[in-house]
Amino acid sequence: MQVQIVEVGPRDGLQNEQKVLSAPEKIRLIEMLAEAGLQRVEASSFVNPKWIPQLADAGEVCRSLPHQSRVRYSALVPNLKGLERARECGLTEVALFMSASETHNLKNINKSIEETFPVLRETAREALALGMRVRGYVSTVFGCPYEGEVPLDNTRKVTNELISMGVYEVSIGDTIGVATPLQVHQVYAALVKDVTTERLAGHFHDTRGTGLANVAAALDEGIRIFDSSIGGLGGCPYAPGASGNISSEDLVYMLHGMGYETGVSLEKLVEAGAYVQQLLGRALPSKVLQAALAQSHRRQPESRAEGGKA
Length: 310
Known about the structure:
The chain is α/β, with parallel strands linked by helices. It has helices at residues 9-13, 23-35, 58-63, 80-88, 102-109, 113-129, 152-164, 181-191, 211-220, 248-257, 266-280, 287-309, and strands at 4-7, 40-45, 72-76, 93-99, 133-139, 169-174, 200-204, 225-228. The chain has an 8-stranded parallel barrel, surrounded by 6 helices. Helix 2 packs antiparallel against helix 11, helix 8 packs parallel to helix 9 and helix 10 packs antiparallel against helix 11. The longest helix is centred in the C-terminal third of the chain and has 23 residues, at 287-309. The chain starts with a strand and ends with a helix. Residues 303-310 have low confidence and may be disordered.
């Protein structure tokens, strides 16, 4: 059984970090992620740099992406201007985004949900005309930092609108990490009445420690595409209290243990996590990463001791 992983660390992960990595550092990270076997990587975001200064170098990064035919790179775009910047960099896939809750949409996009639809529809139409693939994100599906519980009908409406625009896949987001497995079952059971499971993905945060449990629940509902972030990096600047995405290392470890195939090397993924952790100068949330680093650290004195005997 195959599960696709969409690596969002270079975009969703780094956008909330206080320390800004250089373009060469980001490019090297993306290269390591590709070397680990990840075939879908969200490289950056073409939103106004005034709002997300951590990704102000999106153009430089995307123009220098490592060329690997099996890897699909994408970037977030808010409108036609962002789309044009992405196209100029040679990208063939973009992602559109909006929220299921009115207040978060206003905070994040500065438009109401109804005002957002025509902007995204125009952007999707142009992208498709250019031969590009278009993915969609729906944020705050399982809870909003401003409104609390979000009606399921909101998510169904937004998801169906995105599909009608020609979006090939919609990622259902637990932006603030409040979802529980029961809620995940309920949301996907409702969505598959309108959309096939092949066109739905899961985007979970581990804010309250339920991220992987929610993945398991989504797997039960037939979902086979999940977003994750190297090291567990991430968070939304417009969702107070939203900590990192589920860790790519933790996700791959769990999936492999459950008998799913991902095409990803966990060992190389850990190397990428260690690299970005060193760059940021702080321990990252990934449990598998920390366990691997601790194990490596415990082995080092033994190796020195053996070397001394020789």
